[in-house]
Amino acid sequence: MSYSFFSLAREALRGHVGWRPAWRDAEPQPRYDAVVVGGGGHGLATAYYLASEHGMTSIAVLEKAWIGSGNAGRNTTIIRSNYLLPGNEGFYELSMKLWEGLEQRLNYNTMVSQRGVLNLFHSDAQRDAFARRGNAMRLHGVDAELLDAVQVRARHPYLDFDDARFPIRGGLLQRRGGTARHDAVVWGYARGADARGVDIVQNCEVTGIDVANGRVRGVRTTRGDIAAAKVALACAGNSSRVAALAGLRLPIESHVLQAFVSEGVKPLIDGVITFGAGHFYISQSDKGGLVFGGDIDGYNSYAQRGSLPVVEDVMQSGMAVLPMLGRLRVLRQWGGIMDMSMDGSPIIDASPVAGLYVNAGWCYGGFKATPASGWCFAHLIARDAPHPVAAAYRLDRFARGALLDERGAGAQPNLH
Asked: At the N or C end, where does the chain have fewer CB atoms within 10 A?
C-alpha cells in the first residue's frame, strides 16, 4: 500500500479498516543468500539497499528482541555532517544527502527536520578550531557558517551569553543539520525492505556463527540454524560479543550513553544546540519535550542504564548554557550501548573470515550515519569491495597505524 493524502482520506472514510501491517513478522527460512544480524537502523538500511540497489532478495534480518529496541530507539535523533577529516566528511555528507530524500524514497514519514545544528564556542582558540572545521566542510561542498555572538543571540536569545566561566562568543552553524524520528526511520526501512522480499525475523537471537575452513556457512539462533553464504554484523554495542562467536576480537569497547527528555513545554528551541565547554547537546521534540545528552559513562558495560555522576555532569553542562532548564522536570532517561572504537571513527569492512562482514565502532555517530551506513555496507556485501566514501573505515587500520582520529583524543575510547 502506498501512503498518500488520498489513501489517508479513503481509509478515514472507511473507518480505517483497510490498513495493512507495514511489514511481515516473518518465520526464519533454513537458507538465505545473506543474513544481517541486528534489526536496528543500520541493519534494516543494509537489507533495504541490498534489495533495492543490488537486486538481492534472499535476505533475512535477525533481531534478538524487536526491531529498533537497541540504539536505534535510544538516541537523541540528531543528524548532521559537520565533520573535519576527509575520511569522515564525505561519508556523513552522503548520509545527509540520503536523509534529504529518504521520506520520498521510502514513502514513509521519517520526520526529517532540517532545523539546523549550532555548535557554540566560548573562547578565541575554540573559535579558530571551529573556523578550521567550517572551512574544511566548505572545501568538501558542505554548508557551514561561522556566527558571532550577535548572530547567535538573534537565533537563540534565551541562552546565557554572559556566564562568567563560559561566555558565548559565537558558533558554527550547519543549517542542513537537524533531527529525524528514530523509530520512524526503523519502521520506514523495515517497510521498504519487506516490500522487496526481505524477511524480518524478530525474537531471534544469534547464539553461534558457523565457520568452516575460514569461511562462514551460516548462523545458529534461538529459532534454529540458518545457512548463509554471507553474514553481516550490525549489532552496535553488542558487536564484540557477536563477533566473538566467530573467533574475532574487535578493536572496540562498549560503554553506556545516557539521554534524557524533559516535560513538554511550548516551542522553545528551534534547532539543535551543543555546548562548547562541555559535552552537552539539546533539541526539542515534536511533543514539546527537551531532548538532551552528554558524555558516555566511563566504564565498560552491556547494560542499558547509566550512572548518577554522568547525570550530574549533563545537568551541570545544560544549566551553564540554559539556566532555565533548572525549572523543568526530567520525565524519562535511558541508556544505549555504544561501541567505541580506538580512534573514534567507525568500521565497515570484511572480516578475516570469508563471507563475514563487520559494521561497528560508531561511537556517538551511529544514528546520523544510518542511511550511508546501510548504503556502504550493502555495497561491500554485494560487491566484496568497499564503497569509495567508506574506504577509510578499514578494520586493519588499527594494525597499520592509519587511524582516523576525528576528535583528536588519540587511541583512547574512553575519551571518545
From this structure: N
Within 8 A by CB and 6+ apart from 279, the residues are 294, 295, 317
Nearest alpha-carbon partner for 65 in 88, 43, 83, 39:
39
Q: DSSP characters for 104-125?
A: HHHTS----B---EEEEE-SHH
pLDDT at 407: 81
Summarised one tens digit per residue, pLDDT across range 267-309 is 999 999 999 999 999 999 999 999 999 999 989 999 988 899 9
Reported as a single tens digit per residue, the pLDDT across 355-412 is 999 999 999 999 999 999 999 999 999 999 999 999 999 999 999 999 998 887 777 7
Say how far apart CA 169 and CA 163 lie, in whole Å. Answer: 11
Q: Amino acid letter at 333?
A: Q
Element (H, E) at 152: helix 149-155
Using alpha carbons, list the distances in angstroms from residue 138 to 82, 129, 133, 177, 253.
10, 14, 9, 14, 33
The residue among 388, 296, 407, 254 whose CA lies nearest residue 345 is: 407
User: Is 415's pLDDT higher than 80?
Assistant: no
- In terms of pTM, does the model score above 0.70? yes
Q: Does domain 112-178+253-340 have CATH number 3.30.9.10?
A: yes
How far apart are alpha carbons 18 and 35 in whole angstroms? 32
C-alpha–C-alpha distance, residues 95 and 76, integer Å: 17
Least Cα distance to 175 among 92, 133, 115 occurs for 115
As a dihedral over the C-alpha atoms of residue 392, residue 394, residue 400, residue 402, rounded to 10 degrees, the angle is 20
64-88 tens-digit pLDDT: 999 999 999 999 999 999 999 999 9
Give the 3-state secondary structure of residue 76. coil
At 311 the pLDDT is 96
* CA dist., res. 371 & res. 103, Å (int): 12
Map out the domains of the chain as residue ranges.
25-78+182-251+343-415, 112-178+253-340
CB of 178 closer than 8 Å to CB of 79: yes
Q: Which residues face 62 on adjacent strands? A: 37, 201
* Rounded CA separation 219/231 (Å): 8
